[in-house]
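Internal QA ticket QA-208
Title: Verify multi-chain structure generation after dependency bump
Assignee: T.L.

Test input:
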Amino acid sequence: MTAAQPAQAQKPGAGPPKLEVLGITKLFPGVVANKDIDLALHEGEILALLGENGAGKSTLMNIIYGLYQPTEGQIRVDGSPVEMHSPRDAIDLGIGMVHQHFQLVPVMSVVDNIMLGSESVDRGLLDRQSVSAQIQELSERYNMAVDPNSIIEDLPVGVQQRVEILKALYRNAEILILDEPTSVLTPQEIEGLFEVMELLRSQGKSIIFITHKLKEVLRVADRIAVLRRGEMVGEADPATTSQENLAALMVGRRVTLEMEKEPASAGDVLLQLRDVEAHTDLGEPALRGVSLDVRAGEIVGVAGVQGNGQTELVEVVTGLRPATGGSVLINGVDMTNASPRRITEEGAICHVPEDRHMYGMVDAYSVADNLVLSAYYKKPFSSGLTMNEQAIAQHAEELVARFDVRTPSVRTSGASLSGGNQQKMVVAREFGRPIRLLVAAQPTRGIDVGSIEFIHSQIVAKRDEGIAVLLVSYELDEIMALSDRIAVMFHGRISAVLPRSQATREKIGLLMAGVSVEDEANS
Amino acid sequence: MATASSTTGITRTLRALLIPSLALLAALLAGAVVMILSGDDPMAAYSGLFKGAFGDGKGWARTVRKTIPFVLTGLSVALAFKVSLFNIGASGQFVMGSVFAVAVGINFEGLPVYIHLPLALLAGIAGGMLWGAIPGILKVYTGAHEVIVTIMLNYVASLFGGWTVYAGGTQGQTPGPLWDRTAGAISETPDVLHSAQIPWLFGPPYRVHYGVFLALAAAILVWWLIFKTPLGFEMRTVGHNMRAARYAGIRVNFTIILTMALAGGLAGLAGAIETLGLNHKFAPEFGGAVGFDGITVALLGQTHPIGVLLAAFMFGALDGGAATMQFESGVPADIIQIIQALVLAFVAAPLIIRMIFRLRQQTDQDAGSAVNTSWGGA
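Actual output:
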C-alpha cells in the first residue's frame, strides 16, 4: 500500500488536467456502479484504469463517452464543465473510444468505416479520396500502417484495432479511451500497440488505458488508478509499485499470483487426437489435422490467438462439433463423433466451456438447476417420471459450500450471480463428479482475481489426482502458470508442443503469430 | 428462508399477473373509445357483456363452453413457446383433430362408449400430433422455420377438412369420404355415434359436456410435464439455451419434434372435444379460428399453464357475453374481436402498457442484466 498516493497527485510537468471527473456517482436500481469517483487525466499522459470485472470501469468510461448520464457529479474537459447526452457530444469534445468489441462494419472498407457517421461529402457524393489521403497521413504520423482500401474482414485483428484508433484520431480525438485493447493481441502485437500509445502520448494525446493485466500497466502507464467495487481505491506510480501491490489494491487482500505446483507425474495417454479436422459454423476449415496427446496427471495448455481453431478443437473433443476427419480416442476408445452424452459418461469427461453463457449455464435457471445440468436425468435427481427437487437442492447446497459459490440461495437465478460466481458454479458442477479427463476452455475468462486463484488451484488439484487436463486459454499468463506442456495453435494446426521448461514468452509469442521456430525448438 | 422464498413466489405471481391484467384493462378501455366514436354506449355494452357471460346459469354455461377450446389451443401454443417454438399451426392441428376424431366417431357402430369415445379422442390427438410433428421434423432436418410451415399447413388442413366432406355426389363427382350422404348438397359429416359423444355434464339448454374436465386435466398435465419431469427439464433447457442443452447431452432435435407433436396433440384434442362434445359432426365452418386465438391466450397467460387457464376463461367470457351485449346494447358483437386483438397487441408490447400505466421497469432482474452488460466489457 506504500505505493498508493493521494488522489490529487500530479505528474511533474503535466499541465492542467485535460479531463476531470469530479465526484461521479452512478446508481443502477439496487446497484452502486460508481461511487464518488474523482479522476484527472493530463495532456500527454497514459493513465491506466485497473480493476476487476464488475469494478465499474466500463460504467465510468461509458459516462465519459456520453453513453450513460451520471447520477451525481461532474465532468470537465479543459477545465470547463460539460454535459454529454450521447457519444456524439463526446466526440465533439475530442473524446474517442476504442471498444473492446470493435465497432466496425466487416464488409466495408477501411475508408468507409472511418468516415462512417462523419461522412465527408463533395457535391453530394462521398469524398473517399480526401478521406483516404487523411488516413494515409494519420497512419504515417502515428506509425500505424494500414491500407485505406482494404476490407475490414480481411484484416488481422491487430490491424482492425488500428483502424479503430485511426477512426478516433480522424475525428480529432484528443482523449483516447482504450477498453481492454490487449485482450485480442499476441505478445508482439501488444508491444506494437504500446509503441503506438507512446507515440500518441509524445504528440500530446491523452490516453485512458483500461485493463486487468498488471504487467501491461507497469510497462506502459504513467499513472495507475485502481477501481474496486465502484470506488476509487487508490492511485499508484508504476515506477515504485509492484504487481503484488496492484493486485492487493484491486482485490482488497493479498493474492498469490504464482501458482505453486509440484512437477507433473504423467501416466497413460488418456486423450489422443490424430489428424483431427473440422469446420467452422460457416463451413470453412477450422482444424487442419490436429494431433495431440494428453496424459493422466498432466496439464497440456493450448496457447494461441483467439480464432485459430481452439474453440472447434474443444467442441470436437466434447462431441459438440462433428469431426470431418481424423480420430478422437478417449482412454483408448474411439469417440470420434460420439454424442456429447456418451462422451460425458463413457469418456468420463468434464467440460468447462469457453463461454459460460453460451454453453455452460442456463441464465434463467436457478443455481440448483444449473448444478444438475449434466446429471438431471440420473438418480437421485430424477426417479423415472419426476424430478426430485429435494435431492437437487441438497446437491446444490453441498457444491455451493464446497466450491464457495457466493449466492443468496440455491434458488437464485444463475443470471443474477457475478461472473466469478457463475464460473465457480460451472466449475463446481463439472469438477464435482467423478472424471478422468478435464477439458477447460478459458476457465477464468472475465472473472475476478480471487476466483481465478481458486479455479487455478482446483485445476492443479485435479491434475494431482491423476486426471488428464486439456487447458485452452487466450491468456498466455494462464497457460504459462498452469501447463506442464504447451501446445501452440496457429491456423488450425498445432505448430509446436513445448515442455514448460523450454517455453519462453517470446518463443510462444512467435509461434502464436505463425512464425516457424523449428530451428529453435528442439523438441 | 422459507418465508422469504414464499413471499418472492407471491410477488412473482402478482407481477406475472400485472401486465396481462393491465393489457386486458387497456383493451377494454380502447374498445370503449371505439364505441364512443361510433356513437354507442360502452357502459351499456359492457354491462350487457357481463350479463351475457355471468348473468345466469346459461351465461355461465356459455362462458365455460367457449373456454374449453381456448384452454387447449392456448396450452398448445404455450407448450411450444416453452421450447422457443412458435406454433402458429394450432388452427390446422385443430381441424386435423376434428377430422380424425369424427372419422372414428361416425364409424364402429356397436362399440361401448368406454372404448369408442376414448378411441375417438385419441384419434383426434393423433391427427393433431401428426400435423404438429411435420413442422418439427422439417425444422430439424431442413431448417425450415416452424412459423412458415405451420401457417402453410393450416391451409392444407383446412382444404383437407373441406375435401373429406365434399358434397360432390350431387354433380356426379366423387364425394369426400366422410360426407353425409343424407345431407344433400350440404358439406358435412353424419352425426357422431352416441357411443363416441362426450356426455353432457349439464344437458340442454346448458350444453356443458365433460370435456371441461379434460381441459382442466390437460392444463395440470402440461404443468406437471413442463415443471416436474426430466422431459420438461429438457424441453425448458432447449427453450432457454439450445447450445447449453446440447452441452448437457440433451437430444435437441428429438425434443423439438416431440414438443411440436405434443403441441399439435393438444390442439388436436381441442378439435376432437369440440366435435365429439358439442358439434357432433364436422363441417368446414367448424374451422380452426380458435387455434389462432390460442396464440393470444398463451401470451396473455404468460405461457404458463395456470395463466392459460385464466386467460382462456377471460376469452371464454368475452365470447360468451358477446351475443347478449349486441342484443341488449346494439353494439355489434364484432367489437369483441377488436378487443381480443387489442389484448394481443398490448400483451405483445408490454412497453406500451408500462408507458400507459407508468410502471417502472421490473426491478432487480432487468436492472441486473443492464448492469451486467455494461460491466461485462470491463
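Spot checks passed. The interface with chain A takes residues 1, 5, 228-230, 233-234, 237, 240-241, 243-244, 246-249, 251, 361, 363-365, 367-372, 374-378 of chain B (CB under 8 Å).
Status: verified.
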